[in-house]
Amino acid sequence: MKSMYPKNGRVILHVDCNAFFCSCEIARDPSLEGKAVVVAGDPKERKGIVLAANYIAKNDFGIYTTMPLWEAKKKCPQLVILKPDFDLYREMSTKVFQFLATFSPILEPASIDEGYLDITNCYSSGTPLQIAQQIQKGLLETLKIPVSIGIAPNKFLAKMASDLKKPLGITILRKRDVPKILWPLPVQAMHGIGEKTAKKLKSIGVFTIGELAKTEKGVLKDLLGITGVYLQERANGIDHRPVDPEAVLKFKTIGHSTTLSHNVTEEHTLIEVLRKLAYSVSNRMKRKRVVSSTIQITIRYADFQTVTRSKKLLNPFQEPEEIFEYAVKLLKQHWNGDPVRLLGITALDVLDKKESIKQLDLFSYEEDAKDEALLNAIEQLKRKFGEGIIQPVSELLNKENNLKEKIQLRYDAKQKRRGGESM
Questions:
Q1: Which GO terms describe its cellular component (predicted)?
Q2: In this predicted model, what pLDDT tens digit does every residue of 142-182 receive, in sequence order?
Q3: Distance CA 378, CA 412 (A)
Q4: Does 352 belong to an annotated binding site?
Q5: Is residue 113 marked as binding?
Q6: What is the DSSP string of 34-92?
Q7: SS3 409
Q8: Would you call 114 a catalytic residue per the annotation?
Q9: Domain co-membership, 283 together with 328
Q10: Based on the structure, what is the number of domains in the chain?
């Protein structure tokens, strides 16, 4: 699989939910499948506009976003018009991004219905195309949400690629393909260029992406400022922006997953994997000075079926022992015993430690205060002397027992030698 990934460079996916608002509504009410559906303001208000339209409404009746509702009704008298349910859309969006995070922790939501995923080091999960297919199939089967996916060496090309085939498309766009595929397109088709920018570019004779790519940077900088330089680079397939998991704070999660070297069926092995993951997640939370109140585990079976389960706790957590404890509980509750290929732990709804409000009662206040002082002291020791200075009691007892065994073996061996000499 590793041979299918570049030696230098990145592999970025752009995952775009198709007609997201309508897809959420159809997922909730499957009887809408096969019908022209739009989400609009108030169906009784003729002044309303279309907020979203599914592909039947778009392709068969020419209905588009921002079209006046009266016009949409005229084009399609049998049109199904639904009021927006933003709580539903937010809930579905969270589930989509939680699913994507099981493939790579380097995930950047770009909006409620699209995001970037860096899978450069995910070759153990398959080729880039296979991973994209797993994502597309998994979201459709588990959430009933269709997505288009672009595969490319950077964010810009991945975004452009996902737009080329909708709905349910998967498109690979390499930098060498840019002149053939992107340059003939009109400049307004390029991601990052709106009506006003397109109008300015056309005023200097730039009508296609190819013409933008060949325009001198100085001319573009005079016209559009530093944005002009960036757009010229994008038109040539250049984009150095990393996928940034911290870009959108409200979607922020901190998680870690690992693909196992072989399919595992032993519970004790899975528990040890969770222990390591818990420490990894905790360390990242501490570095970023954040806490969470919801723990989630991900179990991926040998047949690639993926299960995510979460639990909301009364108090915010950050320590590895708490993360590990609840991750193990979730594993024991929801693992069906089948061979496991991947395990992951994610802290959801992460927020700054200073902003968290702990729900203390009269019995826990004093105990929590002691814990806080102790944990701060432990962190100072770790920073001064290294991670190994503080270890779980179980590990120390194991080491003590091992040492006793070694001493006993050496003593027995010495006694044997003495016995042999006396003979």
A1: cytosol
A2: 999 999 999 999 999 999 999 999 999 999 999 999 999 99
A3: 39
A4: no
A5: yes
A6: TS-EEEES-TT-TT-BEEEE-HHHHHHH---TT-BHHHHHHH-TT-EEE---HHHHHHH
A7: helix
A8: yes
A9: yes
A10: 2
